[in-house]
């Protein structure tokens, strides 16, 4: 690629817009379709790969397999301004990030940490652990990864109703406060990986014996699943939340690089089709190598610090918007099915919306329960639906035999706008928090790896990296066998 097609600027822009719109339509169709997740995922990859190649051809860009970089000097001025006008704040944010990343151990690893910042960092770590993380299930509802979200919701419910002390949870809290989110995320990945491995080993004998016990496999949950706008997260809000995540992360690296007097050449984004895979700030390599360990660590942690700080801000906005969100939905009660042998069977069709029950308006499940509370055996019941009105005589149980559920719909343009903003904020909270924490993993290519390299023994680090990498692969397995 890189030769391009000869055309004027207007033609090129028109083609770019047309390709982007076609991608959005294609991914939207895949998102709302009900086919196999893996097949839809593969189709999405093909769509993005082909469109990426077209974009490269039209715009004379370099790249391969639909992946390309868009770089520019635009944005360098903003980074320069931030580094000059808010230098102390950024240094504090970096040290705060080190504290929540490595917990109490920060004092022993990074000797230059400001003690007041350390105290704020530990307090923030406790806040994240006990107040913010438990509410991540709100954002999880926007993920189209049923196995993971169902597991989290079930765990949340069990924790809510459990009366016995959760000693495992207490131990995890102590470990996290002692070693920060770096210990938390690495430990969780390794623990879940071992659990998946043991379950797989336990399943193999049942498979060999011809009586496969799939419940053993289904009891495991994937620790990792792909986040793809239009497939596993909403399309537009997903792309925007990923863009916000990447901009925050890379600009923060750039600001700390400029505070350390490192020259920046450009800023840009790595795209696959139109999906942002990553962003970058191109810095002078020679100047980076000459930095002191302290300056390198602050620069490396800056992206993670800013992502987690942004997640806290988005969390507050999400909680503020939550009451407003409930006001934009209109609820109604619909018939899911009817019971054979009961009066309503084959009379009220599934999907019918119940408007009135004995002239009592039905708006939600609560009003339905009130309306049906006085139904007696062999009494007359009038039911008004969107598909017709009916008169029934209840049987000896006092029922006419309908299964119902409560549904929600947004009826106004303003409601749709509020819902979109909430989706964007909720996803931004979730992605900034979990991607920020995941970046602490001690494996090549992650910021955590670079920080560990400056502090840890090389042999020990390589062993740890190998264990975490194997655990990461194992964490993907349950997602593969569930799709």
Main beta sheet, described? 6 strands, antiparallel
What structural class do you assign from the helix and strand content? Answer: alpha+beta
| Unreliable residue stretches | 152-164
Strand % is 5-15%
Shape: globular
Radius of gyration: 27 Å
By DSSP, the count of extended strands is 10
Number of helices: 17
What's the order of the H and E elements? HHEEHHHHHHHHHEEHHEEEHEEEHHH
Q: Which range best describes the helical content: under 10%, 10-25%, 25-40%, 40-55%, 55-70% or over 70%?
A: 55-70%
Query: For the terminal residues, how far apart are their CA atoms?
Result: 35 Å
Structure description:
The chain is of the alpha+beta class. The chain is 61% helix and 13% strand. The chain is built from 17 helices and ten strands. It has helices spanning 9-32, 37-59, 76-85, 87-102, 106-109, 115-132, 136-140, 146-161, 167-208, 214-218, 235-259, 285-289, 293-328, 365-372, 413-438, 447-455, 458-482, and strands at 63-64, 67-72, 264-272, 275-283, 329-338, 353-357, 360-361, 380-385, 388-393, 402-410. The longest helix is centred in the middle third of the chain and has 42 residues, at 167-208. It is globular, with a radius of gyration of 27 Å. The two termini are 35 Å apart. Residues 152-164 have low confidence and may be disordered.
Topology:
Blueprint: H1 9-32, H2 37-59, E1 63-64, E2 67-72, H3 76-85, H4 87-102, H5 106-109, H6 115-132, H7 136-140, H8 146-161, H9 167-208, H10 214-218, H11 235-259, E3 264-272, E4 275-283, H12 285-289, H13 293-328, E5 329-338, E6 353-357, E7 360-361, H14 365-372, E8 380-385, E9 388-393, E10 402-410, H15 413-438, H16 447-455, H17 458-482
Antiparallel strand pairs: 1-2, 2-3, 3-4, 5-6, 5-10, 6-7, 6-8, 8-9
